[in-house]
């Protein structure tokens, strides 16, 4: 069951990595999940909100939407079970990651210094490849053991804990962290 009351364009950006933020396009627990990628156009909305593209992706079709959701779920499962990932999920991630992408270019800025010019994405396949590569980079990098799920019982968002002590518990201090603080405060007042 998908909750249709929530604005599908309310994307979450607490993950710290583009691949982790992409998994946040499906939120909540079964049976009250909220799908934020409901139509092919939502792929373009997400891509623009992530500042990866300027214009709608022309090949955002129902098939591309299916593929995007498959990649998302493969990434989500693998992030949660990074120590023992499912081979099928690694295949899905690798298939997208192995595609070629337009590379960065150099242009000259006003002072004639070379400036890095990152390519804007024009196709859904490029978007999924970029996301999958970020996932590969994260899963094989120094923060691979720091991918966590928010500690709030009703929140399923993942994040990468890059804090030095490594004790981050909430997807966002302003949302789930603040709610937990308030709940603790109320519980203490009830006991007093
Ligand atoms: Zn949370």
From TrEMBL:
Pinpoint the Zinc finger CGNR domain residues: 146-189
Coiled-coil intervals = none
Record Pfam families: ABATE, zf-CGNR
Give the superkingdom in one word: Bacteria
InterPro entries the record matches: ABATE, ABATE_dom_sf, Znf_CGNR
Q: What is this protein called?
A: CGNR zinc finger domain-containing protein
- Lineage of the species this protein comes from: Bacteria, Bacillati, Actinomycetota, Actinomycetes, Kitasatosporales
């Amino acid at each position: 069951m998908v909750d249709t009351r929530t604005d599908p364009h309310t994307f979450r950006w607490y993950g710290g990595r583009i691949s982790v933020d992409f998994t946040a396009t499906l939120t909540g627990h079964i049976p009250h999940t909220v799908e934020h990628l409901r139509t092919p156009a939502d792929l373009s909305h997400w891509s623009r909100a992530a500042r990866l593209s300027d214009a709608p992706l022309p090949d955002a079709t129902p098939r591309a939407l299916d593929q995007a959701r498959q990649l998302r779920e493969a990434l989500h499962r693998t992030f949660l079970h990074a120590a023992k990932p499912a081979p099928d999920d690694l295949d899905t991630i690798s298939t997208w990651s192995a595609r070629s992408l337009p590379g960065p270019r150099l242009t000259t800025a006003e002072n004639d210094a070379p400036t890095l010019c990152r390519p804007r994405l024009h196709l859904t396949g490029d978007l999924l490849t970029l996301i999958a590569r970020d996932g590969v980079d994260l899963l094989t990098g120094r923060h691979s053991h720091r991918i966590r799920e928010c500690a709030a019982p009703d929140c399923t968002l993942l994040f990468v804990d890059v804090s030095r002590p490594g004790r981050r518990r909430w997807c966002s201090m302003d949302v789930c962290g603040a709610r937990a603080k308030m709940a603790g405060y109320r519980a203490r007042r009830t006991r007093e």
